[in-house]
Q: What sequence folds into this?
C-alpha cells in the first residue's frame, strides 16, 4: 500500500508507527510541519511562513491537498486531532484514519466553540478512529465519532527492549545512586502543567527528609527542566534529586531498569507509553486515578493509584513503596503479565494493518481489533 501520514514530525510515536509500516514493505510518506529524516520514509514539509495563524493553516492545507493529488495514496492516516486532524478532514481525502493522542481530545475541544466544532467535524468524517484507551475513545464518541468504527490500538511496547532482566546498574552509577538505595523516576514532559511535576516535587521534599536512602530522577521529553530544578532547590531538595532533559528512546529502558518506582500523576492523560514500558520492566507504579490509567493499574494489586494533585496521597504511596521491596517486586511481576498480554507493539501494528486492508480492499477484517460497539462499550 501507499500510505500518507499526516502527523507530528520528530516525535517518537510518529516515527515508531511509520517505521513499522515502512519495514513491512509499504510505501510511506509523512506530511508534517516538523520535518526530519526517517529512514525508509519520504518526508514532506507542509510548513507555511505566511503571517497570521488562520492564513498559515489555510496555506498548509493547500499543500496537503496538492501532495495528496500528486502522491495518490491508497490511504491517509492522520495523527493528532488538533491541527493535523483538521487538515485531514478538510483535505476531503478518504479513506482517512484518525488516531487521537491525549489532550487533543481531553482538553482542546473544550477550549472554545470553534475548536469543539472542528473536533466534531474531524471525528465524524474519519473512516476509522483509533486511540490507546477505552476512555479516550468514549470521549471521541461523545464528540461525534462512530462507535462502530472506533478501535483501541496501542502504541505498544517492544518486549525485546523493555523487560525486567535489563541491567540498569550503569545508570545508577552515573547518578551516584547506591545499590540498596531507592530510585523514584518521573519521566513526564516539562511543558504542560497538568503533568503535576510540582506536586511530585512537594511530595519528594517531604519523603527525602524522612529517608536517607531515596533518590528522585526527573526527566522530560519536552521542555526545559531549569524552572523545576529551581523549584526543587527552593523546596529544600538535596543532591539526591536529579534533573535531566530528554532521554533518547533507545536509552529509556536503561533508566527504567535503574529505577525502583515509576511515578506519573497527571490531571489529564490517555494511556502513557512510558507507563506501559515501566510495567514491562517490572517497576512498581504510582499513577493518578484517571480512567485511562485505571485500565492498566489496579490499586494495591499491580501499583498504587492516587488522586491528581493530592500531595498527601502521593506521599503515602511513595512512602509505602520505598519501604517495601517485596511489595515492589510483587506489583512489578503482575504488571509484566498484564502488559505482555495487551500491549505488544508487533501485535497492535498488525491489527492496524488489518484495518488498513479493510479500508483499501473492502474486505472486513477477521478477529481483533473489535470496535467499541462490538465490545459493548458504547
A:
Amino acid at each position: 500500500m501507499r500510505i500518507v501520514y499526516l502527523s507530528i514530525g520528530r516525535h517518537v510515536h510518529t516515527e515508531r508507527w511509520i517505521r513499522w509500516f515502512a519495514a513491512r514493505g509499504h510505501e510511506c510518506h509523512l506530511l508534517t510541519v516538523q520535518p526530519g529524516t526517517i529512514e525508509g520514509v519520504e518526508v514532506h514539509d507542509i510548513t507555511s511562513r505566511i503571517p497570521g495563524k488562520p492564513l498559515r493553516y489555510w496555506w498548509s492545507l493547500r499543500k496537503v491537498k496538492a501532495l495528496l493529488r500528486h502522491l495518490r495514496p491508497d490511504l491517509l492516516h492522520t495523527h493528532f486531532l488538533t491541527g493535523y486532524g483538521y487538515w485531514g478532514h478538510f483535505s476531503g481525502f478518504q479513506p482517512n484514519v484518525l488516531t487521537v493522542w491525549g489532550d487533543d481530545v481531553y482538553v482542546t475541544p473544550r477550549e472554545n466553540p470553534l475548536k469543539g466544532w472542528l473536533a466534531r467535524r474531524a471525528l465524524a468524517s474519519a473512516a476509522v478512529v483509533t486511540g490507546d484507551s477505552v476512555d479516550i475513545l468514549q470521549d471521541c464518541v461523545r464528540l461525534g465519532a462512530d462507535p462502530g468504527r472506533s478501535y483501541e490500538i496501542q502504541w505498544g511496547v517492544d518486549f525485546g527492549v523493555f523487560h525486567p532482566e535489563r541491567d540498569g546498574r550503569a545508570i545508577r552509577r552515573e547518578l551516584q545512586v547506591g545499590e540498596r538505595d531507592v530510585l523514584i523516576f518521573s519521566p513526564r514532559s516539562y511543558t504542560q502543567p497538568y503533568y503535576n511535576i510540582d506536586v511530585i516535587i512537594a511530595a519528594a521534599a517531604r519523603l527525602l527528609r524522612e529517608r536517607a536512602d531515596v533518590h528522585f530522577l526527573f526527566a522530560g521529553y519536552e521542555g526545559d527542566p531549569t524552572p523545576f530544578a529551581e523549584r526543587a532547590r527552593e523546596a529544600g531538595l538535596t543532591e539526591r534529586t536529579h534533573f535531566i532533559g530528554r532521554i533518547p528512546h533507545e536509552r529509556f529502558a536503561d533508566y527504567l531498569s535503574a529505577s525502583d518506582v515509576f511515578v506519573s500523576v497527571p490531571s489529564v492523560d490517555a494511556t502513557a507509553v512510558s507507563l506501559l514500558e515501566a510495567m514491562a520492566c517490572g517497576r512498581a507504579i504510582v499513577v493518578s486515578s484517571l480512567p485511562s490509567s485505571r485500565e492498566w493499574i489496579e490499586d494495591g494489586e499491580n501499583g498504587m493509584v492516587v488522586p491528581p494533585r493530592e500531595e498527601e496521597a502521593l506521599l503515602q504511596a511513595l512512602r509505602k513503596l520505598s519501604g517495601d521491596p517485596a511489595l515492589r517486586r510483587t506489583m512489578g511481576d503482575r504488571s509484566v503479565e498484564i502488559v505482555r498480554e495487551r500491549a505488544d507493539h508487533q501485535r497492535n501494528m498488525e491489527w492496524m494493518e488489518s484495518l488498513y486492508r479493510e479500508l483499501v480492499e473492502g474486505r472486513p477484517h477477521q478477529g481483533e481489533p473489535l470496535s467499541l460497539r462490538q465490545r459493548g462499550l458504547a
About this structure: The longest strand covers residues 27-32. The radius of gyration is 21 Å. The chain has a mean pLDDT of 94.
